[in-house]
Amino acid sequence: MPEVVFPKMRLKDTNQGMCDLENGKEFRMYVCGITPYDSTHLGHAATYLAFDLINRYQRLSNLKVSFVENITDVDDPLLERANRDNQDWSVLANSQIELFQSDMAALRILPPEQFIKVTDSMQLIESFIDRLDENGFLYKVDSDLYFSAEKFLEDLPFSVDDSIKIFSERGGDPTRVGKKHPLDPLVWSANVAGEPGWDSKYGYGRPGWHIECTAIACEYLDNEKSDPIIDLQGGGSDLIFPHHFMSSQIVKAALGRDFATHYVHAAMIGFGGEKMSKSKGNLVFVSTLIKDGVDPMVIRWGLLSGHFQVDREWNVDLLKTAQSEVALVRSSLSRSDVSPSDLLIKDLVNAVADNLDTPFALKRLVEWAQDSHVNPSVNESGLVSRAIDSLLGLAL
To answer: Which helix (H) or strand (E) holds 360?
Structure first.
């Protein structure tokens, strides 16, 4: 890219509203990864694309980015599908991880520096549970272990009643007899016959959802000096509660520090008028689109055409528009002479810096491409090609 000034990135923090990201020497980001029981759908892709743009921008700003993503490769949905299909759960998980990584590569989403499986992290998870135990925040119900969250519920994003309802809908068990508080999350689950398990001082079993992420994030990103521990916690908006809320409270209880300076969430992708989800049966898979001949860069363009924090629909018209606009930009980039690039590249940088305003970035790129066909004057198509590749991940 030519010499460009990269302003501080501004992002809409779920808890604080619009915030400038501080430009220190290092930027530490943790993004919650997949549970590998099914193919990558466009909702997944949109989420990881948003954090790919943040990763790219911070690197272009000459920051050292430490980026970790987990894989929840043992969880109820995975075990249920493996049982349904009479398949070994670990074979299913590994096949879906490979497909996910293939889909991400096709979409040119840069991989994290650390891509950590839960099944490879049992010892560090147990050590993190030890910290909660030492600080007096664990208790047993039958043979299961829970985090006592009552002292950490002052900042609930919803009323207690609404929180309990959402907690129940998203994997929690608020009505279990013996719990101290309905919102206490499971930390270690005693083994159920036929399911995988691991030996630990807390019995033979497997960890709960929230403790997995906190243990992995702190193991790979904590410099033991900073407070908060990381700069940004990211994921889909469906993780705001209980997952990200509980993860942050668990870190406070275990380490006495805040977990993240910023919490940033990507909105949901819909199809057929409803949020794209397994339960709705309305998933559009990245691998299926590619198999049907859709250019991965068209998929990426289509997802970038809507703002990452606005719930939006994927449909045939959006796909056709993306195909048309990608063809237009490609035709301009193939020309020797095009319109000047300086103002375009500056606008693209500022758009990404401004809470990932990709709709404006693509609009400017289309305008530049149209003008390049009418008023070609400079041999700068290579500059534009490299700029949109490095900044937007569009290899056109």
So the answer is: helix 358-374
Looking at domain 294-392, its CATH architecture is Up-down Bundle (1.20)
CA-to-CA distance for 378 and 110, rounded, in angstroms? Answer: 31
With cut-offs at 50, 70 and 90, classify the pLDDT of residue 8. very high
Say if residue 7 is preceded by a cis peptide, omega within 30 of 0: no
pLDDT of the residue at 1: 59
Q: Residues of CATH 1.20.120.640 domain(s) within the chain?
A: 294-392
Q: Which residues does residue 359 pair with via DSSP β-bridges, in sequence order?
A: none
Do 35 and 69 contact (CB within 8 A), yes or no? no
pLDDT of residue 194: 87
CA distance 103 to 106: 5
CATH hierarchy code of domain 10-266: 3.40.50.620
Selection from 74, 78, 55, 69 nearest residue 116 by Cα: 69
Q: Distance between CA 205 and CA 76 in Å, rounded?
A: 13
Residue 111 clears pLDDT 90, i.e. is over it: yes
For tokens 């008028």, the residue is: 273
Residues 6 or more apart in contact with residue 185 via CB below 8 angstroms:
146, 147, 149, 172, 208, 209, 210, 211, 242, 246, 250
C-beta atoms surrounding 390 within 10 Å: 14
Residues of the chain with CATH 3.40.50.620: 10-266
In the block, tokens 């045939």 appear at 316
d(CA 42, CA 88): 26
Query: pTM score, two decimals?
Result: 0.96
What is the DSSP annotation of 25-90? SEEEEEE-----SS--BHHHHHHHHHHHHHHHHHHHTTPEEEEEEEE--SSHHHHHHHHHTT--HH
User: What pLDDT is stored for residue 270 in this prediction?
Assistant: 93
Among residues 52, 59, 68, 66, the alpha carbon closest in space to that of 108 is found at 52
